[in-house]
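Ticket #4471: complex job returned nothing on first submit. Input attached below:
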Amino acid sequence: MPRKIRVTVWGENVHERTNELVRHIYPQGMHNTIAEAIAEKTGLHVRTATLQQPQHGLTRRVLDDTDVLVWWGHAAHGKVRDRVVERVLARVWEGMGLIALHSAHYSKPFKRLMGTTCSLTWREAGEKERLWVCNPAHPIARNVGPYFELPSTEMYGEPFAIPAPDEIVFISWFQGGEVFRSGCTWKRGNGKIFYFRPGHEVYPIYYDKNVRRVLRNAVHWAASDGVRWIDSCPQVPARKAPEPLQVKGPRMHKEGQKGFR
Amino acid sequence: MPRKIRVTVWGENVHERTNELVRHIYPQGMHNTIAEAIAEKTGLHVRTATLQQPQHGLTRRVLDDTDVLVWWGHAAHGKVRDRVVERVLARVWEGMGLIALHSAHYSKPFKRLMGTTCSLTWREAGEKERLWVCNPAHPIARNVGPYFELPSTEMYGEPFAIPAPDEIVFISWFQGGEVFRSGCTWKRGNGKIFYFRPGHEVYPIYYDKNVRRVLRNAVHWAASDGVRWIDSCPQVPARKAPEPLQVKGPRMHKEGQKGFR
Amino acid sequence: MPRKIRVTVWGENVHERTNELVRHIYPQGMHNTIAEAIAEKTGLHVRTATLQQPQHGLTRRVLDDTDVLVWWGHAAHGKVRDRVVERVLARVWEGMGLIALHSAHYSKPFKRLMGTTCSLTWREAGEKERLWVCNPAHPIARNVGPYFELPSTEMYGEPFAIPAPDEIVFISWFQGGEVFRSGCTWKRGNGKIFYFRPGHEVYPIYYDKNVRRVLRNAVHWAASDGVRWIDSCPQVPARKAPEPLQVKGPRMHKEGQKGFR
Amino acid sequence: MPRKIRVTVWGENVHERTNELVRHIYPQGMHNTIAEAIAEKTGLHVRTATLQQPQHGLTRRVLDDTDVLVWWGHAAHGKVRDRVVERVLARVWEGMGLIALHSAHYSKPFKRLMGTTCSLTWREAGEKERLWVCNPAHPIARNVGPYFELPSTEMYGEPFAIPAPDEIVFISWFQGGEVFRSGCTWKRGNGKIFYFRPGHEVYPIYYDKNVRRVLRNAVHWAASDGVRWIDSCPQVPARKAPEPLQVKGPRMHKEGQKGFR
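Support reply: We reran it on our side without changes. The output follows.
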């Protein structure tokens, strides 16, 4: 029987508490709506974590127990502590999947994994968006048809300053005339990463049935098969070299010593 | 007439001042030997900068005046200030080339651009290394033949924890039995990045004629053509949308306001 | 319960019938030894097909019933009919995995999928090969340790004229001094492709336990999840455009007509 | 002084001779209009070649004398002889740039270099297209602003069945609601490849000033620096191995013999 995927949805949970309209749309917070979307029909175990919790809810134990981390952040990127970010990165490299949603293009973990600015252009006009599927057989694009539409959404436009994606799953068409690479994948270390554009605090995007389906698809795609590996940069002693080796010349380190970092 | 490429060689300049043997091999510091290698036969303007200078010698003015930055660091990666790192990253994204040498696989700028751990295995035994050219017509591999050898070198071995390179220019064979992706390229933003393995404090690697030739080749390859661009993540007002657009629905930001970061 | 993967091992079956030594090592033909290696411990359904069968054993029905095709060819690449090659390509694009072994770097399907010459350098001296794992957590590299060795093998050396792989799983070290990208992955259409270097007619490579393990790993990695898709290049009538559209200007094709090919 | 780039524009030259409307728009043939666009302001030497000439005008001598080949074809892809295609491919691998225009997504050389079907969806309704620049500093996108528009054009839509591009330079927005990766780059062997969507027989696309500018930019980007290399798959004799090597075990080939192809 296939292993159950363990999902953690992280939400910064700021606007939901400070903005009446956001609270109205997402009364339990966006993270809970996103978590419900993923649990729906899959029976997956989905937990949530928020900025306000100790260690932002992302303790070592929680991350160890997470196969896929979904990230929603917008107003408080700068408040996420670097120590937690490092912990998230290490788990991604080890094999945890990461799904970065909408404004998480500017979140610390995503920017660190990309190594670019991750900027874009944007407009809030409640316009129509149509997401085209670039490969109908891609596991993330299953069962959404050749495209799906969001009637009212924020616009994100090119240039989107990312490294060339491994695969482009969705490209968006906007009523106002722009386009955007809305679904992109990368691998960093052993972690699979999916960026997915849809989402906004004041539109009910995470109630849309196609968005929810893509979230579920993406969780299944991003989950590792359970094998974890992260490097330790070991010194290999000369006497353990695969080929017999006579040491010659000087050295900077003693045998058994760690390298500089 | 082609523009003269402006090169800055950054060296941490630590072991040269504290280790007798390193001082003996590189009496002017490794950065100066590397700078000479690049200036040799090219007439390029090559400046140097070191950790000990104010702002590590990498002021905004110096970086603005740099087309390609060459980076040597080893013992003092952690001493490089984050503000300077951010400035280097911004210039890479804008178009400056970056050549990371040997132990710079663990330097802050390189790790930030890769988004991975950049670890490897290693051994100091003064063994032989043979660097194979994976594409003889690649600009970085010109005029070094099908391979070149270093008689005495530190070993770096796989797994090398990097994102899949755009191109692999060199793969090394080591006497002790390991292999390594010794010459790799990536693009981040508009900056071209080249990682080149050879180099060590206590072997005269940067006097080797093939290593010096590769350094010159790489500088020419990495130099941008002078056009700079970096994104600003602008808000596009609805009335400036390419297609006529009626604003509908609520907004999180006012027109003209900046987005969250 | 996970779907059983259906594997077809194709072998050209030439040297096994014409060369005494090859027959001695692979009395049932190399394809059967490879098929046994894949079936071993997995209980997978593995069928074989050979050059000499009608349509080389790769009828539409066989390919339809194949999730992963393993290809061994060497002396008779040119005898594989183009019609069969086209059929293989279409199934790869639709989602069938392809594992190309050793001299299959020059097989028609592999060259067609790569779009390059796929050349390399080579030597038959029965030398030692050590295959290093570039990412220990990669599904194809499971349970073989940091490296494995083949005591006697043909050498393949760089430059290997392939497009930049999506991932490099193995790099080989050869006793005679060369290196080679021995395990590489690509995706073309929806098909996952793995090139694996080990193999030779007159060395018992396909009896090696690590080689056999990699074959099994690769079959699991390359198998699609059953969803198939291949494009048809459809004309979209103006009246079915997602946005209301007034046709203006002349046309080359009538509505409903197919495009040129 | 930089070397002058030698450009050959290949046109199938079919509709220009058989369709009154096409002849009216492109009285000298599309290839000549494209050639003029490239020569304009650059002073480059641009020659043309057509399907109807002996060897389609692409003799070994012409290709040897070509740094960048621009390809227009639509109705007669199937009439291009395979021998000429092989010659074009070999020159690309050796370093010649290739620019495939519009319907050349289905041309033999482009499909062979991609290794995929290269299909898409399409509609002829004379609708508006807006091409967005995904990286304003990319050499191919210089001086066209954040986007440019074509008032009346054929639509090409996703899914576009290509391997993941190295870089995406343009993405198109269509009035009818579709999107398309309209400017993509790859490298195969040493040849740089650019696919550029705009173009149609019955719209005056190749008179558009931005399209013409992109053509010139692309020619400069795709041109190699003159170094050529193509592999020969040589056998390396054991006595010429970089490391001393005792031959052991049997062989399939004699020393000096060529491998199978």
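The two ends of chain C are 42 Å apart (CA to CA). Closing as resolved unless it happens again.
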